[in-house]
Specification:
By secondary structure, the chain is α/β, with parallel strands linked by helices. The chain is 32% helix and 12% strand. Helix 2 crosses helix 4. The longest helix has 14 residues.
Length: 179
């Protein structure tokens, strides 16, 4: 059985939705975002311990602090490549960013291959079912472009601001090029 819960975010952010199998967090996304299709939205809303723990984590995060714990999560359909990408994303410190190309280079080095596609990395980053906790918002284009974000560019910008990033380094690409 899959359950859901709605988290009310501070002003400036879209509210968030969560899924759980009853024990683990299995999805976290901004409501009405492009990421909604990846999750079970028509299911029973239920107050679960994992939703309370995730809400506590989000409360701390949205206060502008880096939470010192991670709610238990479980990711389905996790390929070795996606796991590599998630492991690297999880290593990005609060208030820092990496580019898709940075991640591609790390994977290529770790696998002992000459090159890894940043576009393939982008697909794996975009596949991430648990936003913020797995901080895919900390990945940007090589040139400082916000490229895309399943949770919406507005939310990505606000998340990076909340973490204290220098926003002068980034830009929103022209519509149709990467959004």
């Amino acid at each position: 059985m899959i359950y859901k819960w709605i988290y009310k975010t501070p002003e400036g952010f879209s509210n968030m939705a969560m899924n759980s199998n009853g024990e683990y967090l299995t999805g976290l996304w901004f409501e009405d975002s492009k990421d909604s299709y990846k999750h079970k939205v028509d299911c029973e809303e239920k107050d679960l311990l994992i939703f309370r723990e995730t809400s506590k984590w989000l409360d701390i995060y949205f206060e502008g602090k880096n939470p010192n714990f991670t709610p238990k999560y479980k990711i389905g359909n996790l390929t070795p490549f996606r796991q590599d990408v998630i492991d690297i994303i999880n290593s990005i410190d609060y208030g820092r960013i990496l580019t898709y190309n940075d991640i591609a280079k790390i994977i290529a080095k770790n696998r002992g291959i000459k090159r890894m596609s940043p576009q393939a990395v982008g697909g794996a980053v975009g596949w991430n079912p648990i936003c913020i906790i797995i901080p895919c918002h900390r990945v940007v284009g090589t040139n400082g472009s916000f490229t895309g974000y399943g949770g919406g560019i507005k939310n990505k910008i606000e998340l990076l601001k909340l973490e204290g990033n220098d926003m002068k380094k980034f830009f929103i690409p022209k519509l149709g090029t990467a959004l």
